[in-house]
Fold this sequence. Notes:
Elements: E1 2-8, H1 12-23, E2 30-37, H2 43-50, E3 55-59, H3 64-75, E4 80-85, H4 94-103, E5 110-112, E6 115-116, E7 122-124, E8 127-129, E9 135-137, E10 161-165, H5 166-172
Parallel strand pairs: 1-2, 1-4, 2-3
Antiparallel strand pairs: 4-10, 5-10, 6-7, 8-9
Amino acid sequence: MISVVIVNYNGRVFLEPCLTSLSAQTYTDHEVIVVDNGSTDGSVEFLEENFPDIHLIRLKENLGFAGGTNAGILAASGEYIMTLNNDTRLEPDCLAELASVMNSSDTIGMCASKMLFPDGRINSTGICISRSGAAWDRGMYSKDRGQYDLLQDVFGACAGAALYRRLMIDQIGLFDEDFFLYMEDV
Length: 186
């Protein structure tokens, strides 16, 4: 099973398209966990009314992406954990494709997805890191011409839409909460 962990902070406007794309997945063995980081925009009420089947975790304060994600991971029951930004919409075969890659080898700890901005340019196809420790999203801002469509090894996955093996997380630990927002996936 895949546990999909979505962190939300005043993102009510994004939730319906994101959650609707999850309900349209061809891979149906998944649970959805939304961690609300103390939103004040009606997100919790919207979720309770419109998506009663999700597992909703209500935090009293904003713990950031790392803290919210960790709360979701701790509540997850899946063999795999998918971290997903609340403003993301998945293609219907996304979970199936990621699970297929993960199932192909026990040595794979995480899978990156190709994430696109609304205008079709690339947001991320994985994380790169230099010898100096600087990190960046592979392909960011470039036009998607299919240049990243083949399976390739990458340093890491952008946590905006990544699949992690639960066993790996158990071995190396959760996201570092010193990184409230950004770079916690590096």
